[in-house]
Amino acid sequence: MPVKHPPDYEITIPECKGDILRIRDLRFAYPDGRVALRGVSLNVCEGEKVAVVGPNGAGKSTLMLHLNGILRGHGSISIAGMSITRENLPIIRAMVGLVFHNPDDQLFSPTVFDDVAFGPLHMGLPEAEVYTRVDEALAAVQMDDFGKRLSHHLSAGQKKRIAIATVLAMRPQILVLDEPSSGLDPRARRSLINLLRELPITMLISTHDLAMVEELFPRMVIMDEGFVVADGPTAKLLEDGVLLEAHGLEKP
Amino acid sequence: MHINVFDHYHFQDSLIHRLDARVKAAVTVAFILSNAILPDGNWLAFAVAWLVLLLGNDLSRLGLGYTFKRSYIVLPFVLVAISVIFSPLGKPLAQWHLGFITLIPTNFGVARFFSILVRSWLSVQMAILLVATTQFPDLIHAFEHLRLPRILTTIIAFLYRYLFVLTDEALRLLRAREARSASLQGRKRGGRLTWRAKVTGSMVGQLFLRSYERSDRIYYAMLGRGYTGHLRTLNPHAMTRLDWLALILSLAVLSFIQLLGWVR
Amino acid sequence: MLLSPAPLHIPDGFLTPFISLVFWGATMIMVGLAISKTNKTLGERQIPLMGLMAAFIFAAQMLNFPVAGGTSGHFLGGALAAIVLGPWAGILVMTAVIAVQALLFQDGGLLVMGANIFNMGILTVVIGFGLYRMVIHRKIGARLVAAGLASWLATMAAALLTSLQLWLSGASRLEIVLPAMLGVHTPIGLGEALITVAALAFIERTRPDLLTSEKAASGGGRGWIIAGIIVSLLAVLLSPLASGSPDGLERVAENLGFLEIGQSAPCEILPDYTIPFLGETHLSTIIAGMVGALVLLGLLILLGRSLRKSPPHT
Questions:
Q1: Residue B10: which H helix or E strand, with range?
Q2: Higher-confidence residue: C98 or B101?
């Protein structure tokens, strides 16, 4: 049952020149007829860290898949002023680093090195540069010596870090993470949170982990049934028990 | 059961481990071919081949008996060859009366049987040594270098990566089946054959669908990282002088074995 | 041990270099054709799909189930792979599976890999897809029966060809290896057929879009029907002939010069060298084969009915 909540809050987006991500009235339905997005609009500024929350089936993952042109809905998306067209796709995909929910889907090569090198190689970078990028990305997620390791020997937390490294190696402008903390034990989750805090990059994540949102993300967007139902400062939204409950969320 | 059951690579720092995967693959195939073309009953040549194998075991620091202990996998197939012992060629060695069947082992048949056995046993040990000293991804790289079609090496790389994920899924399905198949005392367990087949078939169907859907997600992950239909890989392997030396020495030893086998 | 496949993976040492190379040649031609066809016709999405399907076949081979008399129904998967992916992609997937089994687990040899791929990855695909392609536009019931028959026959044909290779290599006596292999594989093939049919029925219920006739037909043209029928007929005619009169087959092979090149010394069967139960064995093999086929047909029809009646899972 679609519940439409008009936003009770004036949307307070921090002042910024040149939004890095601008989505206007995005709509999308899957081929089997399921409507996932019913008109989503969102702006993200450079350097911002934004969390998208909401129940399963709210359209969060579908939204994420639009950001680097894997799914193409109706409406407009622009990344640093560029709209997503066939010609722009290679640049867009280098700019938007998308990390999937399940690292086993993201890490598809036999070794860690092959996986982290996949992005830079397919961007057409020269060999020496590819090695530099791989070292740099693995260092950024504190997994320096893992290049030779086999992907299926890694723990869940390590896989998550390597998955992030695979997109960092492409030096993206925006990091988009789908449920980064799910399936991790407390220690791995803690070290992931520390990692995300230290990465100096624009970040848009979808998650169910409101405790992490409270700790890391100053701005929160609530989605439900394909709509953005609230968008504002995390601290303020988390105080509204009625709003949270209406969308199946719990204050941490 | 853990994924490591499938991983036959045995970590060590040894000369053999450090050799280029191409050299190891080529020598393995040459060794197997050499055994295959040795004439039957050349025990001296087979013995030298076995010494080469022992040397390989020793140089890889896996222990002399490493490959021997794992070579039992060919045993079931040996049954197939037993009938050869009673080949009508050659001189009869004995006469065994089993009921109304008379079996006559001949010297030719016995030599042939044991030659097949030894060839198979030596070959499988060399293959075991290859995977014990070479990481499988290196082997895939080696095949890329050896001009194996890219599409095949890519399928093999995916197969290797997801082997572990999917067998885990298959094991979970099996466990779920076990957990739900109780048997009452005195009753026959498991239901009708068609029912059992249907359950297993549904599991296979389910595994198929999960794999199919996962391949979609992997495709998205590849697209997200710039994949446009052409796969690229780095070629980090280069043959060193030591690799060449090892290759030439091994081939020389194998030629010597052939010489032993054919010149009498 | 979980990985105990049907005795079709020939280890190194059992086939002569000549036979090994002949089948490597045949396999390389077919795989080469498959590569050029898939490169031409299939989209970029196909690469991860084929990789995952190969891993799927590998994992599915672990799901065995007891059939009768202590034997397990094992799943080879060639027919299923061909039906859901099309024949060319099916050949590539099975090639990868057999290669990894040999390289990583020593399940099957390296020099004889060509023969193993040919038996389990090409023959099964040709028969599996060819017979299924005949009824591709029919209703699901007919397609399931065809798929079941095709996968049983594919397993038996693989066993037959394996026996012939072993015999031509002088690694076994034909009158022993053939009845043994066909006998062992009759229930194994039955398991293969039942699993293939049930798996297809499951896919048809949950994702019918994956099995539409246009999709399957785009994988391979009508030529496959002819190839499938010819190979199936060859297998059906050759097995009673081979078990009924191995001497005749031996003479043909000899006339063709196979035995001299194939073996370092031919294992001839002397005319006066006979084993009393031999005649019975051939007769019983043929009868067992026929009874097996009838039982299979009956089971398939029963299974097809019960599957159509059962409500779809939600």
A1: none
A2: C98
Contact A5, A243 (CB under 8 A): yes
Tell if the CB–CB gap between C17 and B36 is shorter than 8 Å: yes
The fold adopted by the segment(s) C17-265+274-309 is Arp2/3 complex 21 kDa subunit ARPC3 (1.10.1760)
Domain ranges of chain B: 6-134+239-262, 135-179+202-233
Query: CATH classification of A21-108+173-246 is 3.40.50.300, yes or no?
Result: yes
How far is it, in rounded angstroms, from Cα B225 to Cα A106? 10
Q: Which of the residues B27, B68, B155, B230 would you substitute to probe the C interface, choosing the one with the greatest number of C C-beta atoms within 10 Å?
A: B155
Convert C234-267 to b/e letters by CB count within 10 Å (16 or more is b).
ebbebbbebbeebeebbeebeeeebbeebbbbbb
DSSP-H helix ranges across chain B? 15-18, 21-37, 43-59, 66-69, 75-81, 107-133, 136-145, 150-180, 193-224, 241-262
Rounded to whole angstroms, the Cα distance separating B201 from C58 reads: 15
Sheet holding A49-53, edge to edge: A96-99, A174-178, A202-206, A49-53, A219-224, A227-233
What ranges do the domains of chain A cover?
21-108+173-246
- How many angstroms separate the CA atoms of A168 and A206, rounded? 18
Inter-chain CB proximity A65 and B3 less than 8 Å? no
Distance, in Å, from the CA atom of A44 to the CA atom of A50, rounded to the nearest integer, reads 8
* Residue C40 φ then ψ, to 5°: -75, -45
Q: What is the 3-state secondary structure (H, E, C) of C244-270?
A: HCHHHHHHHHHHCCHHHHHCCCCCCCC
Q: How far apart are CA A212 and CA A189, in angstroms?
A: 9
Mean pLDDT by 10 residues, chain C (314 residues): 55 90 92 86 79 89 59 73 90 94 87 94 93 84 90 91 88 80 82 88 86 68 83 79 60 50 33 32 47 55 53 38
Q: Is the pLDDT of residue B5 over 80?
A: no
Closest residue in chain C to residue B67, using alpha carbons only: C106
Residue located via tokens 């059906």:
C236
Place of tokens 């938007």: A96
Counting DSSP H helices and E strands in chain A, the numbers are 10, 10
DSSP state of A38: E
Question: What are C186's two structure tokens?
Answer: 């009759």
**Least confident stretch, A84-88, A238-242, C152-156:** A84-88
Whether A152 and A168 have beta carbons less than 8 Å apart is answered as no
The band of A15, judged by pLDDT with boundaries at 50, 70 and 90, is low
Across the interface, whether the CB atoms of B219 and C45 are under 8 A apart is answered yes
DSSP, collapsed to helix, strand or coil, labels residue A227 as strand
Q: Which chains touch A (3 or more CB pairs under 8 A)?
A: B
Cβ of residue B161 closer than 8 Å to a chain A Cβ = yes
Quick check: A166 and B225 CB within 8 A? yes
Tell whether B10 lies on the interface with A, counting CB pairs under 8 A. no
CB neighbours of residue C52 within 10 Å? 30
Total Cβ atoms within 10 A of residue A110: 24
Task: For A107, list phi and psi in degrees, rounded to 5.
Answer: -95, 90
Kindly compute the dihedral angle of the four CA atoms of residues C225, C231, C232, C236, in this order, to the nearest 10 degrees: 160
Subunit contact A105:B222, Cβ cutoff 8 A: no
